[in-house]
Model the fold of this input.
Amino acid sequence: MTKHKVVADALRFRSSPNSHSHRNIIAVLPNGQLVEKIADSGSGWWEISLLPSGPAAVTGFVASRFLQAIPPEAVQSTPSNPIPVLPNLVTAVHLKENRESVARNVITGRAYPLGEPNRPTRDLSSVASAVASIHQVVKWINVERSARYAPNSTSTYCNIYAHDYCYLNGAYLPRVWWSSRALIDLSNRVHVPVQYGQTVNELNANNLLRWFYEWGDDFGWRRVFDLTELQAEANKGKICIIAARNLNENRSGHICAVVPENNSEKASRNLDGTIKIPLQSQAGRVNKSFFNNSLWWFGHTFAEFGYFVHD
Done:
């Protein structure tokens, strides 16, 4: 088996060697993603596995013309376990927390975390408690009626809702993130104050997907490639996210939560029990506390997407 890298801006990774439908898309691989060829599947398709493979290799099919072979000496010269210096020095960052004026019923302060007193949190004492408390968080946020997430003629607030959902449930998803200069200073063990527009900047959905790729692992996020697995993890009371990047960088992508099922809210399933459409919760052009009727990330406006679980 030979090692290759993705040379397209984004490459669709499929469960079968054809492009007749979007239903077989497992993921969209970013430029530079390392893969290993397993076999030639004919008509320009290869079966490949993703690298690094980990304990369970993720395999699928891609169009081979978008891959470039990596010389063996280049692979051997790359350290298998690079020393993680920068991630250990980069901390989660928020604008000032616990500001009571940052509330669901106001439209100011969207760059800040919700600060209302007595806000709900996730109960991790058992799976049942975690699931019930996540639903309580969704009910309390009340995305369909809260002014904080209400769309207007120019803006929608999927990133605000996703951040608030994760924040209340104890999973870090940035609302603001360190600037490039701040990251350099942090890596050099320099104290960096949190200053809006200088050391930290707001992230839209496009940049949140990039953040997942670059920093997600360091903050407890794991990428998965199967909707049935994603919903199963949500049903265990874990925090699960779908994020997608827009083809047009001047337009926002989208991000939503995949939430656990309960007696009244269910995912859409195939006849064999696998997930057809997961149970989701979002702000956007239409705000929905729960829905299971859209595979929106396969839309033609999105360049790439990812599924993420917070462990």
